[in-house]
Design brief:
The structure holds two protein chains of two kinds. By secondary structure, chain A is mostly helical. Chain A is built from nine helices and no strands. By secondary structure, chain B is mainly α. Chain B has three domains: 64 residues; 32 residues; 207 residues, no CATH class. Chain B is elongated, with a radius of gyration of 45 Å. The chains are: A mainly alpha, B mainly alpha. Chains A and B meet through helix 2, helix 3, helix 6, helix 7 and helix 9 of A and helix 1, helix 3 and helix 4 of B.
Chain lengths: 196, 357
């Protein structure tokens, strides 16, 4: 499953301007364009669909309430929205604790229609494996991986979210992927050893 | 040598990592934007198994971790958010009215702050202008405030009182100007005084015509005129010759002659030097009881401003009455032999309370 192409910047800018003037319909269009990215970013952290849906609603409502504070910059609306998202996830973990385990069944349910149960199960296992590996990354590296590969933000936009330079984000991304690869390889080696 | 080599190697590794992170980011950007698949991009890359492995891993992550809200959940979520957003807008408009942060700052506090600053500035300027003399840049403001006070007075008696009060202020200013060594303002201030007293007399006549008691006002006018003479006597020696002569000429033209009680020629102790006319004669002040509820006979100057009985006389606003260019000492009779009528009671009996002339 892949996302649609990123929403055009100027269109988002116009929508944001209209939403700032109190146009709820324009805000609805912003929701249409960005809710999947936000949902994926939240779900991959909280691991519960219902929690993720609630948090996404919270995020967009908070964005609506604070639209008058939003100041359009070159990086666009996404960094601002994902900063809200990041804070909402942190608040969620503060409330419920940092348990990130989810049932395999729920992960299988997420799969696209047309996929066989076996394929879905295999993907779900891979997903768990990847998420477990991502969990072992440092917080900054984990955020870069999620924002880049799940929410599809650019390095510059991630820099705005994490308050880092674009170059620093690129370096973090490289190290995050290298570490992720090492973690996965190490786990595979361990599994192989166990199987032997 | 070894250290240099290590440094060099570290720099090369760091530089290589930087290049790889740039290339990796570029490939990911292309993939995310959907401009070019990783595969085609990879063909242009140097044969770097590490980079290739990282790109594969990134692609795997994207594919495996991508997830979207089911359409029905997305639609329901949208509806819910928009509903709550609209409610929030409504409540923000209702409850926020006065106290929401931006509104409070932008539409209420800022204008209030500006208004408060203006009020403070104006009050400060008004306060400062109350003691300003004609040589001060605040003097026009003082005159404006006097006009405002005049126009805010409710009836003719109040207006007359205001005029007398302002005439007395002119005398205070006159003394200040002489003390400050600025005698050039004296003629102007005297003319202003006379204009205001003339206006006060006109107003008093009109009030009397309407049946209002004016004894108190007449007493105030007489007191002001007596003070005028006292002030003139006090300052006349301090004035330069040309100003003194000008005042004397002015006074000759307007001052009454020797009053029966204290003619100027018979009062050497009060008289002013030669050439200053008879301004040294103290003005006889009629006691209020001398004018029993009848309007005083207007002075010639004042009577010029008075319309015939039954018509409303133009009670000149302070700006006109006080205008030095226009203000003539109307309040005083021009004949030096004729005693001041107002100070010795009405010259002719009023008809139905209206002055005969």
């Amino acid at each position: 499953m892949t996302f649609k192409r990123k929403p055009e910047k100027h269109k988002l800018k116009k929508l944001a301007q209209r939403a700032q003037k109190g146009n709820a319909e324009a805000f609805g269009q912003i929701y249409d364009q960005l809710h999947n990215q936000v949902y994926a970013y939240v779900l991959r952290q909280v691991r519960s669909r219902t929690d993720a849906e609630d948090i996404v609603a919270e995020i967009f409502l908070s964005a609506w309430r604070n639209m008058d504070r939003f100041d359009w910059k070159d990086a666009g609306l996404e960094p601002w929205l994902f900063r809200i998202a990041r804070n909402s996830v942190i608040d969620h973990f503060r409330r419920v604790g940092r348990s990130r385990e989810s049932g395999l069944g729920e992960e299988i349910k997420e799969r696209a229609s047309g996929e066989t149960v076996e394929d879905a199960a295999e993907t779900a296992w891979r997903q768990r494996e990847l998420l477990a590996a991502i969990d072992r990354l440092s917080d900054e590296q984990r955020q870069v991986v999620l924002l880049r590969l799940v929410a599809n933000l650019s390095s510059r936009q991630i820099g705005e979210v994490l308050e880092k330079s674009e170059g620093a984000v690129k370096a973090l991304q490289y190290r995050a992927l290298t570490n992720l690869r090492d973690i996965l390889e190490h786990e595979n080696d361990e599994k192989y050893e166990k199987e032997k | 040598m070894m250290r240099n080599t290590r440094k060099k190697n570290r720099a090369m590794v760091s530089s290589s990592e930087e290049i790889q992170s740039q290339v990796l980011d570029s490939c990911l950007t292309r993939e995310i934007l959907g401009q070019e698949g990783m595969a085609s991009r990879e063909t242009g890359l140097p044969d770097d198994p590490e980079l290739r492995g990282l790109l594969d891993l990134a692609r795997d992550c994207r594919r495996t971790l991508a997830v979207a809200l089911p359409p029905e959940a997305a639609a329901a979520g949208r509806e819910d958010i928009l509903k709550r957003a609209r409610n929030f807008t409504g409540s923000r408009k209702r409850s926020g009215g006065l106290f929401s942060g931006k509104l409070l700052r932008g539409r209420i506090l800022r204008p209030l702050g500006i208004a408060a600053i203006l009020v403070v500035l104006l009050a400060g300027a008004a306060l400062a202008s109350s003691t300003a003399g004609p040589d001060s840049f605040l003097y026009p403001l003082k005159q404006m405030l006097e006009k405002a006070r005049y126009f805010s007075a409710m009836d003719d008696r109040s207006k007359a009182r205001v005029e007398v009060s302002h005439a007395n202020v002119r005398l205070d200013e006159l003394l200040e100007m002489v003390d400050a060594g600025k005698p050039e303002y004296v003629s102007q201030l005297l003319a202003d005084f006379d204009g205001r007293i003339g206006s006060a007399q006109t107003l008093a006549e009109r009030a009397a015509a309407q049946g209002s008691p004016v004894e108190e006002i007449l007493a105030l006018i007489d007191s002001a005129q007596a003070r005028r003479l006292t002030v003139l006597n006090e300052i006349i020696d301090k004035l330069p010759a040309e100003i003194r002569d000008a005042i004397a000429r002015q006074e000759d033209g307007v001052m009454p002659g020797p009053v029966p009680e204290a003619p100027a020629s018979q009062a050497p102790e009060n008289s002013i030097p030669a050439g200053a006319g008879n301004i040294g004669a103290p003005a006889p002040v009629a006691p209020p009881a001398a004018v029993p509820d009848a309007p005083r006979a207007p002075t010639p100057g004042a009577s010029q401003a008075s319309p015939p009985a039954g018509q409303s006389p133009p009670a000149g606003p302070p700006g006109q009455a006080g205008d030095p260019g226009n203000a003539q000492p109307q309040a005083l009779p021009s004949s030096p032999d004729k005693p001041r009528q107002h100070s010795s009671g009405p010259a002719e009996p009023p008809v139905n309370g209206v002055p005969a002339n």
